[in-house]
Design a protein that fits this description.
Elements lengths: L3 H18 L4 H14 L5 H4 L6 H18 L2 H13 L3 H16 L4 H19 L4 H13 L9 H12 L11 H17 L20 H6 L5 E8 L10 H4 L1 H5 L1 E8 L6 E4 L12 E7 H10 L2 E4 L3 H10 E8 L15 H5 L2 E7 L2 E2 L13 E7 H6 L7 E5 L14 H16 L5 H14 L5 H7 L2 H20 L1 H13 L4 H16 L4 H19 L4 H11 L10 H4 L2 H4 L3 H26 L6
Antiparallel strand pairs: 1-4, 1-5, 2-3, 2-4, 6-9, 6-10, 7-8, 7-9
């Protein structure tokens, strides 16, 4: 006999088929679920739309904002540099450092964002160490997945499971409630990758020919003619102290231009790219010069400057400030027939021309050369001014932007503020001072109030499709409960494995969640199995917490296929992986994750505790 519960099971089956086909967007599938539940009469309009008012939706949105804050302030970039420093060229050490870093960072920001950030870092590591990128990218993506098992806010299924516990009358998970289980899985995964590295695919990639933008220095090598850059510090007795750049006239006296000034140190450091001519120079200022070798040497000697050798950190921070681009002179440009000096190019655009090419050959002493159609210029200046060139289409055609364009950290000066906000958010969550949803809202607002990002940046950082997916799938659990579907599943489980003990039930729930995750999103699988786990625990007369932990761990254990989650899908192309590569490496890791959960979860959450 056809019943409402049968209808819900049919909806789940169709939903799984649509998601598995990968032909329909997940957010559209979620909206179709809402519509079907509403029109079928299984749920009222209010019940079908209740997911959009769930605290989980606001939690996910605000956590995405916090993750963007960490990206924009350079926290993620700093971790990448640390990996290069600590990992060296030792493959084993790199596995440990990369996986630990991706796992720990993903505990406080979107794991998808972590993978997006780490892909260029890992490719850079592979290129510099001559290791195969395919052997590093998969372990990194697995570690990012495992990061979802570390903290309450690390991934949406954790919040879903916690809310289900609260709705059933139990205490919610704390911020670090299941962290020991997640850390155990991370340690086991790292050991598995290190010891089982032979399972990792070997894809020979010629990174030197990989598609992508060139670096600033690669582009400049095509343009410069006997010119270089140098950094120097103004001594106390230098004649430049108290003099403006205009009065110093370094260009006419030495043929040298100042690309930027660093003033102050530490947290009070200020960098000024392409400083205006009215800027007064002070003792202790670090100047970034550009010019010919003879002029640079004379300037250092005559003006009593001390050579400053920039560290990798200094160079990186300049590349976050100083943008670059190559432009071609438009055939109808007003600059044709004028030299750069005649056109007052520097003062009008706040951009420095560091090189010129005509007929594919570099041009010496280009400042006084009359510009012609199709001449190519290499420009450098503040990123905001570089990007404005793209709107000046009557004078220039932007022909190349460097790779550093996608690596700019616009608010790196506010990194300490971002770390402070993150720390406060974590502490408030740990000690449960205020509700978790209030804590993450405060953190998101603090990111805006402290100018780590604008409100527009915050809105752009939110993956609205993810929110629709979460909100649309949440009513599915209510539909199962309302129609008796949950009770039917629990009865079947009890009849099948109820007498075998809680360990067997935990195993069944783990693999049920993992199996659904192959077809549904991990959020949808958690939504469906979490209430079943709670009812199953009540039927057995044991604590629901070890079962709930098994569900959320399994929801993040999408190791077996490259299409189960974007966290893994993102590395398929750069790693040139095949479907079976993930099956071969992921299946053993899934079983190791289950075994770790089976052993550790009951230690943290005993079956007899309530």
């Amino acid at each position: 006999m056809w019943s409402d519960s049968t209808t819900v099971f049919l909806i789940i089956a169709v939903t799984a088929a649509l998601m598995a086909s990968n032909r329909v967007r997940f957010d559209i599938v979620a909206l179709l679920v809402v519509l079907t539940l509403m029109l079928s009469g299984i749920l009222t309009v209010g019940e079908a739309l209740a997911g959009f008012g769930s605290p989980v939706v606001m939690l996910v949105a605000c956590l995405l904002v916090v993750g963007e804050m960490l990206d924009r302030t350079g926290v993620a970039a700093a971790i990448g540099n640390w990996i290069l420093k600590k990992g060296g060229s030792n493959e084993t050490r790199l596995y440990v450092v990369i996986m630990a870093s991706a796992g720990l960072l993903g505990a406080v920001m979107s794991s998808t964002a972590v993978v997006a950030i780490f892909i260029p870092i890992v490719l850079r590591v592979a290129a510099e160490t001559k290791l195969q990128a395919s052997r590093l990218l998969m372990p990194m993506s697995y570690a990012a997945l495992i990061s979802g098992m570390l903290t309450l806010i690390a991934t949406t299924p954790n919040l879903v499971v916690s809310e289900e516990l609260k709705g059933a009358g139990y205490s919610e998970f704390g911020f670090f409630s299941f962290t020991p289980v997640g850390l155990a899985v991370l340690v086991v995964a790292i050991a598995y990758i290190v010891l089982g590295r032979r399972l990792l695919p070997r894809q020979e990639l010629d990174l030197s020919k990989a598609p992508g933008a060139r670096s600033v220095f690669d582009i400049w090598a095509d343009y410069r003619v006997d010119r270089d850059y140098r950094s120097a510090v103004i001594d106390d007795h230098s004649s430049l102290v108290g003099v403006s750049l205009k009065e110093a006239a370094l260009d006419t006296r030495f043929g040298v231009r100042i690309l930027g000034i660093v003033r102050g140190t530490g947290a009070g450091e200020e960098r000024t790219p392409s400083p205006p001519s009215s800027t007064l120079l002070e003792s202790g200022d670090t100047l970034l010069f550009f010019g010919g070798e003879d002029g640079l040497v004379r300037l250092m000697e005559e003006l009593h400057l001390s050579l400053f050798t920039p560290t990798e950190r200094n160079v990186q921070r300049w590349l976050w400030e100083l943008g670059a681009a190559t432009v071609s002179i438009h055939p109808e440009s007003a600059l044709i027939g004028k030299s750069l000096c005649d056109a007052e190019f520097r003062s009008r655009n706040r951009l420095q021309v560091l090189g010129m090419r005509r007929n594919r050959e570099p041009v010496a002493e280009y400042e006084n050369v009359k510009l012609a159609s199709s001449d190519s210029l290499f420009l450098m200046g503040p990123w905001s001014d570089v990007k404005q060139l793209q709107s000046q289409r009557h004078d220039y055609v932007v022909t190349e932007m460097p790779a550093e364009q996608g690596q700019v950290v616009p608010e790196y000066r506010r990194m300490p503020l971002a770390l402070f906000i993150l720390s406060v958010m974590v502490l408030l969550s740990i000690f449960d001072v205020i509700p978790l949803v209030a804590t993450v809202i405060i953190a998101a607002l603090a990111a805006v109030f402290t100018r780590c990002m604008t409100m527009e940046d915050a809105y752009r950082s939110i993956h609205w499709s993810s929110l629709v997916l979460v909100a649309g799938m949440l009513p599915m659990a209510d539909a199962l409960e309302k129609t008796g579907g949950t009770a039917l599943i629990v009865d079947a489980l009890m009849q099948g494995v109820g007498d075998a003990g809680p360990g067997i039930m935990l195993t069944v729930l783990f693999f049920l969640t993992a199996a659904l995750g192959l077809f549904l999103s991990n959020t949808a699988s958690a939504v469906l199995v979490a209430p079943i786990a709670i009812v199953a625990a009540e039927s057995l007369g044991v604590s629901p917490y070890p079962f709930a932990v098994a569900v959320l761990i399994a929801a993040s254990a999408a190791f077996v296929t490259p299409v189960s989650t974007p966290v893994v899908t993102l590395v398929v192309e750069p790693g040139r992986y095949q479907f079976m590569d993930f099956v071969k490496v992921g299946v053993p890791l899934l079983f190791l994750t289950w075994l770790t959960t089976l052993l550790v979860a009951p230690m943290i959450f005993p079956y007899g505790a309530s």
